[in-house]
Specification:
The protein has helices spanning about 30-35, 40-50, 60-85, 95-105, 105-110, 125-130. By secondary structure, it is mainly α.
């Protein structure tokens, strides 16, 4: 008698290797999908490996963590810029809206210390220029 089928070896348990059986197609799942991210984990992992000196090993979690940080910051900036464009009643986000969003948020302002091309400047008028100056009585000329 032949022994019962074991689940050892390289074949998956529950699959048959008979000639007539079709192998079930495996759905390919990217590392971004596994982590639930939109940013490409594999590409960022490749970039991290390219940018290191002395061929240092980069762990798999480093790419996932970096992708999550980049995705969060991008979503935050886009949300604030979308609010700024909505306030100005336009549908397209421009560099001006990005500038207003980044400079309006205290934490993003400290993080992004760069000049945004086409962003302009924040509207600011000093207090002393807005307050009305009291009329100074003129001294009569003698």
């Amino acid at each position: 008698m032949a022994p019962a089928a074991k689940s050892g070896g390289k074949s998956k348990p529950g699959t048959t290797n008979s000639v007539g059986a079709q192998p079930q197609p495996r759905t390919i799942q990217t590392r971004s999908q596994k982590a639930g991210l939109q940013f490409p984990v594999g590409r960022i992992h490749r970039y991290l490996k390219q940018r290191t000196q002395h061929n240092v090993r980069i762990g798999a979690k480093a790419a996932v963590y970096t992708s999550a940080i980049l995705e969060y910051l991008t979503a935050e900036v886009l949300e604030l810029a979308g609010n700024a464009s909505k306030d100005l009643r336009v549908k397209r986000i421009t560099p001006r809206h990005l500038q207003l969003a980044i400079r309006g948020d205290e934490e993003l302002d400290t993080l992004v210390r760069a000049t945004i091309a086409g962003g302009g400047v924040l509207p600011f008028i000093h207090k002393s220029l807005t307050t009305s100056v009291k009329a100074v009585p003129k001294k009569p000329e003698a």
